[in-house]
Specification:
With 397 residues, the chain is α/β, with parallel strands linked by helices. Helix content is 37%, strand content 25%. Strands 11-10-7-8-9-15-12-14-13 form a nine-stranded mixed beta sheet, sandwiched between helices. A six-stranded parallel beta sheet has the order 3-2-1-4-5-6, sandwiched between helices. It is elongated, with a radius of gyration of 22 Å. Bound molecules: L-homoserine. L-homoserine (HSE) binds next to helix 7.
Length: 397
């Protein structure tokens, strides 16, 4: 029998226990032996079917030789970081859904795992239930990856969908996303784009082989989006989505950011709604490959964690392709990358064209809307400073 521990027993931790219990037969067939949750690390004991497995003492897990894999679902950095290091040093594989920890310390934890001949796997940290990391690191390995973009946060996509399709107020949509177990403990990370930012950093680390520091990647969320701009965009064949994006710019240079974008309605990503995520990977041989599925929630995220547990148990040697260098050189501020920009201005298109050159007109009048570019964001902002700008957004080319 294989035995594991779960650290943290919130939405994802509970889901892990449920998936293992529900799918025990198929998991046993795959492993050749049963898989059992032996211990669950909690801060506060909770009544229920798993009460007898709970402990508040990490050392009992650390010193238990029968536990070969630890699933970390504590979240955040502090305790999760300390316990992950100790579990790896104790020779246990660690599987996590913790995107903040992977984005901030993944490199160091991967090195520690290799030193101790165990795995540190984090499929659940990006895209919830979508199996996107093995395709990226293995099945697309024949490619040079030039770009990844996508909807990487289920909570904000759910909120935007409810606001646009049902006219639901922001606070009600957020409350629903929280009740459904989609949001982070502090939903500011979702709403302000930090969660999507951590995920694009992880994808970029793996795709480009060098560290993207979340502290320098610009992240903007959905809190400044005005429904009027969504309406103008939709009337003209565009949809508004929060995207994470990373781009290779040359041999050494690269960029990444998170921001709301106008996306053409003929791009399938523009139709990804509710809690669903989509990740588009552009390889130089494949062109665009898209991954789609539920990006948050108890069972989809748990599915990714449990699959990583099976991977650890079946593929004992550490997976060498999951790696990136600590080097953060070559990061270019996305403000300096040419792109197109949407503006809603108080004034006429004629005024805007004097500053931007020819623009795509979405609405002309006392209040006008247009798409300008390609130009850098710095240039766009400089030109826009001479106009009365009411709203501004990136456009996905
Ligand atoms: N809060 C995250 C989201 C959970 O909404 O996408 C999954 O990472």
């Amino acid at each position: 029998m294989y035995q594991i521990a779960i650290m943290g027993f919130g939405t994802v931790g509970t889901g892990v226990a449920k998936v293992i219990e529900t799918n025990q037969e198929s998991i046993c067939r795959r492993l050749g032996e049963p898989l059992r949750v032996k211990s669950i690390l909690v801060r506060h004991f909770k009544d229920g079917p798993y009460r007898s497995l709970m402990t508040d003492d990490f050392q009992t897990i650390e010193s238990d030789k029968e536990i070969s894999v630890v699933v970390e679902t504590i979240g955040g950095v502090d305790a999760a970081y300390t316990y992950t290091k100790r579990a790896l040093m104790a020779g246990k594989h660690v599987v996590t859904a913790n995107k903040q920890l992977v984005a901030e310390h993944g490199n160091e934890l991967l090195a520690l795992a290799k030193e101790h001949h165990v795995n540190y796997l984090f499929e659940a940290s990006v895209g919830g239930g979508i199996p996107v990391l093995p395709p990226l690191t293995q099945r697309l390995a024949a490619n040079r990856i030039d770009e990844i973009y996508g909807i990487l946060n289920g909570t904000t996509n759910y909120i935007l969908t409810k606001m646009v399709q049902e006219g639901m107020p922001f606070s009600d949509a957020l409350a629903q996303a929280q009740a459904l177990g989609y949001a982070e403990a502090d939903p500011t990370a979702d709403v302000e784009g930090h969660d999507a930012g951590r995920k694009i950093c992880i994808l970029a680390d793996l795709a480009f082989g060098r560290r993207f520091d979340p502290a320098v990647v610009p992240m903007e969320g959905i809190s400044k989006i005005d429904l009027r701009d969504i309406k103008i965009a939709e009337d003209n064949g565009w949809h508004v989505k929060l995207l994470g994006r990373c781009l290779r710019l040359g041999e050494f240079e690269r960029t990444a950011y998170v921001a709301p974008h106008l996306i053409r309605e003929d791009n399938p990503v523009s139709h990804v709604n509710d809690v669903f995520n989509a990740v588009v990977v552009r390889g130089n041989a494949t062109g665009e490959v898209m991954f789609y599925g539920k990006g948050a929630g108890e069972l989809p995220t748990a599915s990714a964690c449990v699959s990583d547990v099976l991977e650890c148990l079946l593929e004992r040697p550490a997976r060498p392709e999951i790696d990136w260098s600590e080097d953060t050189d070559g990061f270019v501020d996305p403000k300096e990358i040419p792109g197109r920009f949407y503006f809603r201005i108080s004034g006429s298109i004629a005024e805007a064209e004097k500053l931007f050159g020819e623009v795509l007109v979405l609405k002309d009048g006392e209040e006008s809307a247009l798409i300008a570019g390609p130009m850098t964001e710095s240039t766009a902002k400089q030109a826009a400073s001479k106009l009365s700008v009411l709203a501004q957004m990136r456009v996905l080319d």
